[in-house]
Amino acid sequence: MPLNKKPVNGMKDILPDEMAIRAYVSGVIRETYSQFGFAPIETPCVEHIGNLSSKQGGENEKLIFKILKRGEKLDLEHAEAENDLVDGGLRYDLTVPLVRFFANHENELPVPFKALQMGNVWRADRPQRGRYRQFMQCDIDILGEASELAEIELILATATTLGRIGFKNFQIRISDRRVLKAMAEYSGFAEEAYDSIFIILDKMDKIGTSGVAKELLAGGFPPDSVSRYMGLFEELKAAADGLAFLMKKLEGIIAPEAGQNLTDIITAVQGTAAAEFAIVFDPTLVRGMSYYTGSIFEVSIPEFGGSCGGGGRYDKLVGQFSGKEVPACGFSIGFERIILLLKESGFKLPAPPVKKAYLLEKGLASDEICRIIKQAQEERQNGCQVSIVRMNKNKKFQKEQLSKEGYQEFVEFFI
């Protein structure tokens, strides 16, 4: 039988046209993030299985591509459980590898440390539109900054990047895990049930309030608690300021600084944004990772109809590696979904700059050379790429060599 020419289910080949778009978008991302002070790093695609399955990744821990032990360590005969056969796995996100990286190199890194990481991750998920089993993530993280300055910088950097790629009128939704937990506590749910409740709440945009209530009741949660919980969301619909309403309603349950932090973040972002987008408080926002401890946020682009990135604060995660708690916060762009939207919209790459070569005959006066340089500067300001070179005796050969370098136009200056 011939070998299978199709890629593995949930993964894809990438043709040159798409690769050109991906390279362009990657360049915009790297350039913009570097302007905000983020430094690129790289981590291995394989992580210790104990790190990946430490109950920090939420539902994603069920989607790990696990790697068998090798050689003598792979003892099939005496293995009693899967963990006896596995010692590594393909990373399902970039946050856990980043935190391990930081804990391992903390003495070599500045604090706060602003990291940019771009790379593939793998999840054994059900493939669908914009969702693959291997996909690129683009993360920026700030480690060592406890104040809301971290969230403000992350949101502004991400929004600026999306704006430069060409997206407008998108929305960044923001909340706080402390708000989620306070709402659950107010409603009378047991603390150990919070994660299960939040998984159901995360479906609110798809199944609505009635659907969430129905699933909570089907899950065996107390009817009185479900009724009180759903009542909060109904009251929120009528509130002019949802955050202010919740902070008053949950007074004594939630720390006042949680609401103040969110207010400060929203105010600062609204007042300094360099792109066309809205930032809004959304108490139904959950985010799936268990490692989030404070603020959480997602970016939604109307054309996609769902999340195209997200992140939040995870102040406890570094301590699990180093024994020392370090404040941390990050934002990830949904790279594959952005590429999908650009392709579906008929995105055209910007035309490459015109490359001109100015050929200067030897013996030109200095004032004439200054005039030529000034002319080149004006053309560069208008997007041209201009190289000024001395004219060789063999002009034909010189032009041939410059043409190989991509120069399309030649301007000769004689005495």
What do you see in this structure?
The chain is an alpha/beta fold and 415 residues long. It is 40% helix and 20% strand. It is built from 14 helices and 14 strands. The protein has helices at 16-35, 49-52, 95-105, 149-165, 177-187, 194-201, 204-218, 223-238, 242-249, 256-272, 319-322, 335-344, 366-381, 395-404, and strands spanning 39-40, 46-48, 66-68, 86-90, 113-122, 134-143, 170-176, 277-281, 295-301, 306-313, 328-333, 355-360, 385-390, 409-413. It is globular. The protein starts with 15 loop residues before the first helix and ends with a strand.
pLDDT average, as an integer?
Answer: 91
Q: Largest beta sheet, briefly? A: 8 strands, mixed
Q: How far apart are the first and last residues' alpha carbons, in Å?
A: 73 Å
Arrangement of strands in the largest sheet:
1-5-6-11-10-9-7-8
Broad shape: globular
- Strand residues, percent: 15-25%
Task: Fill in the keyword field for this structure.
415 residues; alpha/beta; eight-stranded mixed beta sheet; three-stranded antiparallel beta sheet; 14 helices
How do the helices and strands line up, and which of them pair or pack?
Layout: H1 16-35, E1 39-40, E2 46-48, H2 49-52, E3 66-68, E4 86-90, H3 95-105, E5 113-122, E6 134-143, H4 149-165, E7 170-176, H5 177-187, H6 194-201, H7 204-218, H8 223-238, H9 242-249, H10 256-272, E8 277-281, E9 295-301, E10 306-313, H11 319-322, E11 328-333, H12 335-344, E12 355-360, H13 366-381, E13 385-390, H14 395-404, E14 409-413
Parallel strand pairs: 1-5, 7-8, 12-13, 12-14
Antiparallel strand pairs: 2-4, 3-4, 5-6, 6-11, 7-9, 9-10, 10-11
Helix pairs in contact: 1-4, 4-10, 5-8, 7-8
